[in-house]
Design goal:
Serine Threonine Protein Phosphatase 5, Tetratricopeptide repeat, globular, mainly alpha, 474 residues
Length: 474
């Protein structure tokens, strides 16, 4: 029986290696693959188990099976630890940190990276050392940033950049610059963000790398959109889209289509915005990318919300929420609960809106997302005004302001101060119940924005894993 099960397991492994992009086969055979995995996991053979995780991980990623990816990578880590293989344990932790990142669990990402970093002194990484250390630092920095520790985040980013420069590793340096730019823009420091955008573009242009040029242009377009220069943003996005097409990067293509849809929405051209989103949706479906498809539906809901088609927005948000819960991504789950709160707020259903905000707030605290927590508290302050509870509104605003100042978000701090001042000046005056709360449910730069940081990190991790495989067969 054991021999039959082993042949069964190896058949699916070899077939998957030969058909890496055949997600339809993967879907059709998933029950059998899962059965084979259970046997592999029970055997505890380090090489076979590692081969299974390495081969099927891209399929799990594409189809949004992050809970299953978590189970597989945790089992891989258990086996590598039991064999006292420090190098294999290091890279298992790196893969596990990537899974937790996609699940939105920043605390677990930080824990995995810190444990991986502690192993560095006991392993020999040879020529890949600087890149692997940089990868750990970059992912750790992103986790610290999500948890509101901006000082530690920038320390990690800067150390990764210096290591990459010393090793003349332009790709890792580019990812470090991109991580810092995203952090500065998120915190409202647009001058520093613009400086880094220029560095990214110069570095990518020197290498004549279409994908990196497209990424730099997307970052620049996002910044222009943030300051209201949407005409120049559109030119930048169109230029970036050409480079994305030349690079054959469909993830970036989807991101640019979404960004151009955002500009069409600003111009009031709803039909064009919907057309661009649907183009992006068709591409995501063709790729078999369930995560992109779900996020784009949420983005479509954002457009409907802005144009006042609240019921249609709610339908999109609910679909995105169901998918986020299935995948296990608590960041998206919290964001879409907040979106639903915002939608019901605009409908004047304040008690229902409050329930959604409270659920989202609880998630933000559980996963350590302080910026999300601050925005939700600000939205709840706005909601309390609508209910005529000015004292409670001020309390929410003060909590939100304290968090915004702690993480260094200057823009959000200014918005909260303004709202708090208005309440204090007119304690006896109710706001209109359909006034939009200060809660940007999702980043306005598109559903692929975070993935554009994750993807380069994932590519660096692939190099690390190839090194791991060589090390284990020596």
């Amino acid at each position: 029986m054991s021999k039959v099960l082993e042949r069964h397991a190896r058949f699916y492994l070899e077939y998957a290696k030969a058909h890496l992009k055949d997600w339809q086969w993967f879907d059709a055979e998933w029950p059998q693959i899962r059965h084979a995995w259970n046997w592999v996991a029970a055997q505890g053979d380090p090489q076979l188990l590692s081969d299974y995780v390495e081969t099927f991980y891209p399929h799990l990623q594409l189809r949004g099976l992050w809970k299953e990816a978590l189970e597989w990578t945790q089992r891989e880590l258990e086996v590598t630890r039991s064999k006292q293989d420090k190098i294999a344990e290091l890279f298992s932790l790196l893969r596990l940190s990537e899974v937790h990142d996609n699940l939105g669990d920043s605390k677990q990402v930080a824990d995995c990276c810190e444990r991986a970093y502690s192993l560095l002194s006991s392993v020999s990484l040879e020529q890949h050392g600087n890149r692997i250390v940089s990868l750990i630092l970059l992912r750790l920095g992103s986790a610290y940033l999500a948890m509101g520790d901006t000082t530690k985040a920038f320390e990690c980013y800067k150390r990764a950049q210096i290591l990459a420069q010393n090793a003349k590793d332009w790709q890792t340096e580019f990812v470090a610059l991109m991580s810092m730019e995203s952090a500065f823009r998120r915190l409202g420091n647009l001058r520093q963000a613009e400086r880094l955008q220029r560095q990214m573009y110069v570095l990518a242009s020197k290498q004549r790398d279409h994908r990196s040029i497209a990424l730099a242009l997307q970052m620049r377009g996002n910044a222009l959109l943030d300051v209201g220069n949407w005409r120049k943003a559109r030119q930048t996005y169109r230029k970036g889209l050409k480079h994305a097409l030349l690079a054959g990067d469909q993830d970036l293509e989807i991101g640019f289509l979404y960004s151009l849809a955002s500009i069409a929405r600003i111009e009031g051209n709803l039909s064009k915005a919907v057309e661009l989103i649907e183009d992006a949706l068709n591409l995501a479906r063709l790729m078999g990318d369930r995560i992109q498809e779900s996020d784009l539906l949420g983005g479509l809901g954002d457009i409907y919300l802005e144009t006042g088609e609240i019921e249609r927005a709610i339908q999109c948000f609910e679909q995105n929420l169901v998918a986020a819960r299935h995948i296990g991504n608590r960041v998206v789950e919290g964001g879409r609960l907040a979106s639903l709160g915002q939608a019901y707020h605009r409908l004047g259903k304040l008690e229902r809106a409050a329930r959604y905000y409270e659920q989202a707030l609880r998630i933000s605290r559980e996963i350590g997302q302080k910026q999300m927590e601050a925005r939700l508290l600000a939205a709840m302050g706005n909601l309390a005004e609508g209910l005529g509870k000015e004292h409670r509104a001020v309390m929410y605003y003060e909590q939100a302001l304290s968090l915004a100042q702690e993480i260094g978000d200057e823009h959000l701090s200014a918005v909260i101060r303004r709202n708090r001042s208005l309440v204090l000046e007119r304690e006896s005056t109710l706001i209109q119940v359909n006034e939009s709360p200060e809660w940007p449910a999702q980043e306005q730069t598109g559903p692929a924005a975070k993935r554009n940081i994750q993807k380069p990190l994932a590519r660096l991790a692939q190099i690390a894993r190839r090194f791991m495989r060589r090390g284990r067969t020596r």
